[in-house]
Amino acid sequence: MSVVDHNAIELSPRISEAEVADYIVLLKPRVMSLVIFTALVGLMMAPGHFHPVLAFTSLLCIAVGAGAAGALNMALEGDIDAKMSRTANRPIPRGRITRAEALTFGMTLAFFSVMTLGILVNWFAGALLAFTIFFYVVIYTIVLKRWTAQNIVIGGAAGALPPVVAWAAATGSLSVEPLLLFLIIFFWTPPHFWALALFRRDDYARAGVPMLPVVAGPDATRLQILLYTIVLVAVAVAPWPLGYFDAVYGVTSLFLGSGMLALAIDVYRRREGTQALRATRKLFAFSILYLFGLFATLLLEVVARAVAPSIW
Amino acid sequence: MDDKREPDGIVLTEAQKKSRRQRSIAIALALGVLVVLFFAVTLVKGPAVLVRPM
């Protein structure tokens, strides 16, 4: 008599019906677009001549590396995503792609992006890109996200690194300017994500993610948003008087910063009802415009200097 | 012999065949981009590599 009844075992391997579009969603295209834009600014600001083909290669590798980090993040957070209305439609909670498939996809892209950047551009930039992916996936996603309310403060470093990687790709070294870009994104992250977490608080609570509004409450979060915004505006304006960025940037930074500060004060003051919700949503939306505006101004300065160096 | 025998193994549905074909094309394109990228950067970084004295 056979110990195992072979007729009782029905082998039904899972055949994937995932389309390319599902894999593109895994790359977090909206996050990737911000990464490409900030990296482009880092690349354009770097001194010296950088061949366009190498610049394109660097941007492509940074973009694919960011996508890899996004895919690995989704692979590791499938359980959280399934419980949150904002993320329940992602390919893993919907059953379009398995965790193992997403992990394989993410690891493959991470490997190729780092190796390509290292081989074709330089190994310092390649190593920085590897560290960025490691920081986002291991430090932020695995360690911090489910453990502490400071998750997005520390984890924000990963999102702030792309312009630094781009600068390293162009120059093979680091300088004060890319670190200033890093600091701007680093201090921008908490007010941006805490504004989101304020109006998605129930979602995060249901998923068991210890975001600040869930752990410390909305009022404490409002105060933290205001404090971080004050630091952000100061850090974003500082490069102008310090002589690193030009006056056009300085004035734009002051103008956009005052808007950001006004909205953060509004969020701090309005604590109840639809007005409070509206103030939070406004701050969240404006914070994206704020970061885009600062980096776009830096990009325009670089382009203007290259096109008309005598006038600038 | 019976020619109308059911094929052995896994039979893919039309949707599975379509998505697999789509994924295969995407992988081929990605590999193509990688090859072109390596070729282009090789030319940019060191065209001398193509000059090989006999």
Structural description of this entry:
The complex is a heterodimer of chains A (312) and B (54). With 312 residues, chain A is mostly helical. Chain A is built from 14 helices and no strands. Chain A has helices at 20-26, 29-45, 52-76, 78-83, 99-120, 123-144, 151-160, 162-171, 176-199, 201-207, 212-215, 218-237, 247-269, 273-307. In chain A, helix 5 runs antiparallel to helix 6 and helix 13 (247-269) runs antiparallel to helix 14. Chain A is flat and about 70 Å long. The model of chain A has no long low-confidence stretch (mean pLDDT 94). Chain B is mostly helical and 54 residues long. Chain B is 59% helix and 0% strand. Chain B is rod-shaped. The model of chain B has no long low-confidence stretch (mean pLDDT 82).
The structural class of chain A is: mainly alpha
Q: Which pair of protein chains has the largest interface, and what are the residue counts?
A: A-B, 16 and 17 residues
Q: Which word captures the global form of chain A?
A: flat
Number of helices, counting only DSSP H or I runs of 4 residues or more of chain B: 1
Residue ranges of chain B: pLDDT <50 for 5 or more in a row? none
How large is the radius of gyration of chain A?
22 Å
Strand count of chain B: 0
Indicate the structural class of chain B. Answer: mainly alpha
Spell out the key features of this protein.
heterodimer; A: 312 residues; mainly alpha; 14 helices; 74% helix; flat; B: 54 residues; 1 helix
Helix-strand layout with pairing:
The complex is a heterodimer of chains A (312) and B (54).
Chain A: H1 20-26, H2 29-45, H3 52-76, H4 78-83, H5 99-120, H6 123-144, H7 151-160, H8 162-171, H9 176-199, H10 201-207, H11 212-215, H12 218-237, H13 247-269, H14 273-307
Chain B: H1 14-45
Task: Summarize this structure briefly.
The complex is a heterodimer of chains A (312) and B (54). The radius of gyration of chain A is 22 Å and the shape is flat.
